Amino acid sequence: MITGSYFDKNGQSPAVVLATAGGTMRDNHFLADPACTGPMVTVAAATQALTFRGNNCRANGSSMTALLQLLAGAGGAPTDGVYEGGNVYGTHPALIAPLVDKNRVAIAPVSTATTYVGGNVTGD
Q1: How far are the Cα atoms of 15, 38, 42, 73 from residue 105, in angstroms, in the given order?
Q2: Residue pair 77/97 in contact by the 8 Å Cβ criterion
Q3: Quick one: residue 48, left, alpha or beta (phi over 0 = left, psi -120 to 50 = alpha)?
Q4: Prediction pTM value
Q5: Which residues does 9 contact at the CB level (< 8 Å), separation at least 6?
Q6: CA distances from 42 to 30, 101, 124 (A)
Q7: Which of 89, 36, 43, 44 is nearest to 65 (CA)?
Q8: Which residues share a beta bridge with 25?
Q9: DSSP output for 15-70
Q10: How far apart are CA 16 and CA 27, in angstroms?
Q11: pLDDT truncated to tens, each residue of the chain (124 aa)?
């Protein structure tokens, strides 16, 4: 569980790299380094059973591509978990979406018996 933490992103690589996704990451704040060119958080696990809720990122004029990128699976929406309330604000010229799949494609809102994706926004 990673809750209520502050990540001052320095450089191009992700601030958090999760090998497993059976946990909770909520109410954290990320500050993107202007040199950032990818996602803030990546998940490598195929199950993607993560609760990723209420995380915010100040893009800081960076070329960040996403708040969270899911690297495993076939692409598209995750197969399990809750992904909601992510917010990316500030200047973000290269942002694809707050949540993207392994192909760097935005993941649209979805609600199933095992998965919820919704309320992820961008703003200035």
Answers
A1: 20, 13, 14, 13
A2: no
A3: left
A4: 0.88
A5: 15, 30, 31, 32, 33, 36, 40
A6: 13, 10, 23
A7: 36
A8: 2, 52
A9: SEEES--SSEEES-EEE--TT--SEEEEE--SS--EEEES-EEE-TT----EEEEE
A10: 14
A11: 788 888 886 667 788 888 776 788 899 999 888 888 888 888 887 667 888 899 999 888 888 888 888 887 778 888 888 899 999 988 888 889 888 988 999 988 989 988 888 888 887 6
Tokens of 59: 């893009």
> For residues 27 and 53, is the Cβ–Cβ distance under 8 A?
yes
The structure tokens listed for 43 are 């998940």
Structure tokens at 36: 């950032």
Tokens of 82: 């809750």
